[in-house]
Sequence to fold (831 residues):
Amino acid sequence: MAIYVLKRIGLAMMLVWLVATLIFMILHAVPGDPAELLLSQGGVAPDPAQVEELREQLGLNLPLLTQYWNYLSGVLQGDLGSSLQDGHAVAEEIWLRLPRTLELIGAAALLSLLIGLPTGILAARRVNTLLDRVLSVTASVFLSIPVFVVGTLSVLIFSQQLRIVPAGGYTPPSKDLMGHLVLLAMPAGTIAVGLAAVVFRTTRNAMLEILGRDFVRAAHAKGVKEKRIVVHHVLRNALIPIVTVFALQIGTLLGGTVLVEYVFNWPGLSGYLVRSVEARDYPEVVGIVLVISILFVLLNLAVDLLYAALDPRVRYAR
Amino acid sequence: MSINLSRRTFIGAAASIGATASLPFLRIPGARAAENGILTFGLSSYPPNLQPWSQSGTAAGTVKLLIHRGLLSYGPKGEYTPELAESWANENPTTWVFKLRPNAKFSNGNKVTSADVKWCIEQIAAEKSTAFFRSEFQGIAQVDTPNDETVRIITKEPISTLPLWFASYNLPIIPKGSDLSNPIGAGPFVITGQERGASITLEASPHYYKAGFPKLKGIQIVVYADENLRVAALQAGNVDLIEYVPWQSMDAVAANNALKLDAVDGPFMCLLFNGAKKPFGDPRVRKAIAHSIRREDIVKAAFFGRGTPLAHLPISNDSPFFNADLADGWKYDPTLAKKLLAEAGVGSGFSCNILSTAQYGMLKSTAEVVQQHLAEVGIQAELNLPDWSTRVQLANRGQFDIAVHGTAADSNDPDALTSFLDGSLPPSISRSTNLPVPKIQTLLKAGRAEFDLEKRKAIYHEMEKVALEEVPMVGLCWRKQGYAMQSRVNGFKNLPGQLTFFSGVTLEGVSLA
Fold:
C-alpha cells in the first residue's frame, strides 16, 4: 500500500510539473503583452519607451527559457512569484482565495449529497413509480439548466423580490459569521442544484444495478430487514461509482466555479484565474493552475484510497 | 385532546419553525447600505493596482480620487477647482506658479510642501519612470521651490494646458520619498482595509484640509463585476451607489422612485485606420467611410438608445471649442461616400478587416453595425474579434485595417485629443497608425502654446476643419456613462463630458439623508 501511494505521488508530481510547464509555454505563446496591457488601461495610448521599461522591470525581456528556469527555481523553493500587475505575492493571494473556493465547493457538495443520495435511494427502491418518474424528470431539468440561469434567477427571486439575501458579495467569517453564511447560501445552492441531480442519477442507477444481484435476494430470503439491506448491502456496493462520479465533479469544480463566482461576486480562485488570464499575468496564471492541478491529483489519489476503505475486495498490493 | 405526533411530523414542523425564525436574521446583510454614515459603493472592477501616477483604469482612478488630491481638480461644471494649490497663474508663457494651501496635509498629519510637489514631478519625469505623464513632463525644464508654499514650473515651450495635467487623478501629490506601492495621500479618505478582489474599506481622513469634509464617516467599496448583479444589488438596497450602469438598465433605474440616475454623454466611440494598408492611406477613402455610417443605428444597437450620434471630432456641444458649423461634417451620406470611393479608384469596392473584440458587447455591436453599413457602399469588411488582451496588442502594433475603439479623453479641452489625433506618434490602441497629418500636429501644438481663449478657439476650429477632410479618426457616437444611487444619497455629481471618470472627486461632499 505504502509503495503504491509513493508511486502515485511521484507520478502526480511529474504530472503537475508537466501541466505547469505546458501552461507557462502556452501563455507566453498567445498574443497579449502584460506590460502593454497594464499601460493601456482605460484605452489610453502607452508610450512604447515606457512599455519597454516596464517589460525590463518585470523581467519579460529575458529569454523564455531563463524566465522558465527562474520561475521553476522559485516554485521549488515555495515561491510562486509576484503579480505583474501590483507586485503582490501570488502564493499569498492563492492561500487567501483557495479556502473561499473550497468552502463554496464543500458547501455545494454537502448540499448535493444531502439531496441527491436519499432521493436517489428512494427512486431506486420505488423504481417505475410516479415518485421515481417525478424525481427523474426533476433531476433532468436541473441538469439541463445552465448554472448562470439558476444563479440569475436566484438573485431575482431571493434578492430583488423577496429581499431575504443580498445580491452576492463576500464577508469574511471572522467579521460576520451569520452574514458570511447567508452570502454563501445562494452560490452554494446554485452549484448544488446541478450536482445533486448528478448524485441522484448516479445513485439511482448504481442502486438499481445492485438491487438486482443474487446476494440482495439472498438477504431478503434470510429475512434481513429492508433498511439494513439498503444501507449495508446495496448502498455500500453502490458507493464506488457514486464516489467516482462525485469526485470527478468536485475536481472539475476546482477551477470551474467561474460563472458562479462571477454571478455572485464570490472572490474565489476561479474568478482570480480568469482575471489573471485576461491581464496575461503569467505568475498568477501558472501559480493558480499549479495549485489546482495538485489538488486535482490529490483528490484522485484520495478517491483511489477511499475505494479500498469502501470495498475490502479492492487492494493495492503493487 | 391528544395529539399524535410522529417523528417525521415533528422534524418537519421543527424545520419549518426554524426556517421562519431565521428569516429576520437573513435580512440583516441585505440591509447594509447607508448605515452609520457609511456609503456602500458598488464598483465595476477591483483596481489592478493603486500606484498613484499610473493609468490603472477608471476603477483605480475612482479610488485614487478618494485617497489622494492633486494641485487642482474639477468642479461640478467641469471647471478647474483649487485643491492642494489654492491659486495658480502663469507668470510668463513658460512659467506657471502654484501657491499651496498652508493647511494642506497628508493623511499622516504632515504638511504638503513644495518639496513634495517637486519630488513628485522629478519622479514622474525620471528616465525609468512608467508614469502616465512621463512624456508630457519631458517638456518641464525646471522646478523651483522658493518657499514651502510656492512651486514654480518652467517649461521648455509655452504650455497653456499645463493645469490639465495637475488636475488629473493620475497626478496626485504624495510625500517626498514615498513607497509607490503604498503611498500616503492628501485626500478626504484613507484605506483602512482591503479584501483583495472583493472590497475596500475607507474612513474619513482626520487631516483633510477642507473643514467639514468629507461628510461621510466612510465608504465601503464592494466590487460587482457583473453589471446585472451591480444593478440588482442597488435595487435590493445592498449598495447606495453604483458606477457603469448598463445601458439596458437605465430605463428601469430612472423609473424607480427609490433610485436616481445620473448619466452624461461622456466617452465616445470611433474608428481608427492603418494608413500603411491600402487604400486607407487615401483621405477620400477614410472620408467615404465616415459618411457611410448611420450613427443612430450604433446608438440603438450597442447602447440601447443611450447615446448621441457624433459626426465630427469628439468635442462636446457644451465646450467653448464646439463649432456648430462643423457638427455634421461626417453626416450619413452614402451617395457622397460612393462618389469619394470612385474618385479614390476603389468604386467597385474592396475587402478589409475590422479589429474589435468579442469581450465587450458595445465594441462588438459597434463593429457589426459598421460592417453592415460599409457593405452598403461596397466595402466587404471581415470582423476580427479576439479577446481584449489580444486586441490591445494587435492595435498597439498596428496590425489592423480599421479598428473600433471606445474611450474618453483626459479632459474636455481639445488638447486632450492629441493622443487620438497625432498620427506621428507610435502605433497605439487609441489612434490611427501610420497616418501622420502634419497640419493637425502643427495646429495642436499651436493650440497648446496659445493662452488667449478666442485665439485657441480659432485654432481648434481650423484643426477640426482639417480633421474633417483628412479623417485621422471617425467619430461615431457619444455613449452615456451612468451612476445610479439610492434617493437618500445627496451631493454626488456625474461630471460633464469626458470628465465623467473624475466624478469620484464629488464623493467628499456626499451625505446620506
In short: Chain A touches chain B through 61 residues (CB under 8 Å). Chain A has a mean pLDDT of 87. Residues 150 and 190 of chain A are 6 Å apart (CA to CA).
